[in-house]
Each structure stands twice: as C-alpha cells, then as structure tokens.
Design a protein that fits this description.
Blueprint lengths: L6 H9 L2 H5 L5 H17 L10 H13 L20 H13 L3 H8 L4 H39 L1
Helix pairs in contact: 1-7, 3-5, 3-7, 5-6, 6-7
Family: Belongs to the MICOS complex subunit Mic60 family.
Subcellular location: Mitochondrion inner membrane
Organism: Dreissena polymorpha
Length: 155
Amino acid sequence: MAAKNNPFVNRVLESIPQQALTRGVYTEDNLRQRYTKIYRVAKRVTLIDETGGSLMKFMLSYFQSVCVIPSVYAIHESDEVDVSKMDVFQLCGHARYWIEKGDLEQELKFMNQLTGESRRVAADWIEETRLLLETKQAALALMAFASSSGLGTIF
C-alpha cells in the first residue's frame, strides 16, 4: 500500500481498460485457438468489401481462398513491409506466421490492416487481442515499478 498515492501507479492503473477490469481478458492460448477460425473465414471472404457482395462474389472469393497460398516475407521484426500493397492473403499469412512464433503484437499489426468483410470477421478478435496486450503492458509496468521500489529500499 506504500504506492497507493504514487502518481505513476495511479496513471498505470487508470490506463487499464474498464472492460478488462470488469470482465477480464482472454488468454494468449485462447486467442491463438480463435485465430485459426478467424484466419480460415477471413481468407474465404477476401473479395467482399465494406458494401457486401452477391452470392456469386462470395463463391468466387471462396474458390480463390482455396487456390491461393499466402507468402510470408517479413520474418524479422526489423523487416520493412509496405502493408498498403499487401492483400488479405498476405496479411493473414504474416499474421499466422507471427502467432506461430508467439508474437501477438506483431500479428495484431497485420490484422489491423484488414479491410472489408475480412476486417468485420476479425474485428472482435482484434479488439480482444488489443485488450490483452494493453492489460499485459500495464501489469508489466506495475511489476517493474514494484521490483525497482523493492530494490530501492535495499540500498
């Protein structure tokens, strides 16, 4: 309770999203499992934009998703990527690569670039992942503060 009136602690606690405090957050493993379904569906609706599409367009989009194998060329965090030139298959492929590596933050960067129906399909997953990462960052900041405060009392 010594840090109760500490401005840093108060600021970090205020930064934790209200939804995380009241409902909690999904685990990383749960989000990885959900991503598998999101990936499959987002690929199937890649040709559908924000305005929707006809049955024929949905069928064409599905067949395209079966035929296209996404390429991944950004395999290091330092690799520069022009996401404006990437299609849904490439974005989802990169996101899948990073989730297999255990890096939710990098994956979220790619998933945030989705548009159209693919974005709508992934919107809930994107929000839940963002919520987890924000909460995790706040928890790490509080743990670092607690550790440094503890070390400060020793010396």
